[in-house]
Structure formats: structure tokens, C-alpha cells
Amino acid sequence: MNSVEVNHLTRNFNNFFAVNDISFYIPQGEIFGLLGPNGAGKTTTIRVLCGIMLPSSGSVNVLGYNVTRNPNEVKSRIGYMSQKFSLYNDLTPVENINFYASIYGVPKKERADRVKELIKMADLSGHERQLTRNLSGAWRQRLALACAIVHRPSMIFLDEATAGVDPVSRREFWDLIYTLASEGVSVLATTHYMDEAEYCNTIGMMYQGKLVALASPETLKNNLPGVLVQLDCDRPGDVLKLVSGQDGVINTTIHGALVHLTLKDASIETLVKEALAHAKITIKAWEVIQPSLEDVFLTMVSEQLSTAEIPVKEEKRRKA
Question: Rounded to two decimals, what is the model's pTM?
Fold first, then answer.
């Protein structure tokens, strides 16, 4: 069974297309990541899926309900958490969870046990009576997740939910998400952190409202067109100026003191080396490497900018 089915979703505001004809689905228990920069259309997509905003065209079904016809049914059955953490600072964690339990209609006789369960899950034992404003960002994040799942939703939407949290806390947060997914909960998470996307079963890369890639992290990396070279040299900035836009050079980026060159094929390596030697750029190390998701995304964006239209590169998956 699919928890989410999106077919040709478009959401426009007059002549601006925030989401432009995207399609994907999320099987039960899968973690699906929407990856892209600010303004790519990720939040608009989530708002439509949550029933907060109606689609301009296309169909969206969440947990078996059409969001256009039954938005309230969708809202009552999902969990939602954003980067702003919809918490009440003048309440304690226990009071926040109890408040959301009442909003979501959790029976009163079940609330005390559910609150205890979520306080333990969020590792807030010993802090449950503090005012929320006095909690650290990591504790507030876990509390916000506890509030979002107090009614045991089978579908959770996380919109930039880890923004502003340190890497260790982000990892601990994702451990909680993995636990929920193992219990059959489906998750859609938006992020612009490339390392977080590695935690997802499937990634949809968005750029300017379009879904430019859709596959598992490994498939995306393995299917990156061309050859990725990591170059250590004495003048990385000059390398970009020299080879960017040349025939056979798909993309060029700087990673710290290193240069990443995505080349059409191995034959281009010789031409690039000759050009660098002619410019008297000293090559300290030249290595063909496995691409990261950042390399994949930047290449996809480069292709998007260089062509009028880019087809969605989708891993073939059997529809459940």
C-alpha cells in the first residue's frame, strides 16, 4: 500500500509555478526525502500534501484520501513538524504534549501513558517540568516530534525539521525517525542538507519547482553521467575559470581546497590535463572518485540550466 500518491501535481500563483508537474509515491514505512535549495518548491509540495493548500492541477492522495475532496480527513491522520517547532514556550514539555493530545483527539484515559512514552522517547526525562523556552534546540526538536506523533499518525511530514541543530543532534533525531519507519510509519522529509538525504530510502531532487531526479541515494550516485574527478592543485580558482563551459566538461565545483570536475567521459581527462599544464597549474593529485549527493545535485542543476527541459531521471520501481 502507498501512503502517498502524487500524480502531475502543479501549484501556481498566477504566472509563477511553485510546483511544476511532479509525480511520485511513498510506500508504507518508507522514508522519502525532498532535496533542494530554498525556493525549489519543497514546502509548497508539503503544504499541498497536508491539505493546507489545494493543487492547481493534478491529483494527490494521502493515506487513501484525496486532499482536494477530503483535506480534513488528511489533516487528522498525519503528523507535521516544521523547522519553527510549533511549541508553546510558556508550557512545559508535558503540558505541550498534553495540549496536542487534546487537539488531535487522543482519549483522556490514554493521555497519561502516551505522555510518559513520548517523554522517554524524546529523552526528556528530568526535563519534563521545565519551561520549553529553557530547553536546548535539540530537546525542543525532539519535543516537537513527540507532539507531532502524539496521536500515532501513520504518515509524518518533516519540513526542514533539523535546520539549525548540530550534527550530533541531527543524527540522534534521525535515529528516532528510523525507529518510527521500522514500525510502519511513512515519512516525507524536506531538507537542504545533503548528508541527511543519505538517510532516505528514496530521494526526489527539486529545482525551480521541478522534480529533476527520483531514485535511491545509491542509484543517483551510480547513475551520475560521465566521470567525476577530484583535483588537488595550486590554483583551484583558475581551474574553474579555465575549464568551465568547455566541451566535455559537464560541471565544475570547489570543495574546500579541492576541485571536482564532472567530465563527459574518460577521454576528456587528457584534454583537461593538457589545458592545465599549458596554464602552468601544478596538479598535486588527480583521482576519479565516487560522487556524493551534492555532486549529483549540482550536475542535475547544471543540466537544468543548460537545457530548456530536463526529463525526470527515475529509478524503475514496482508500484506497490
Answer: 0.84
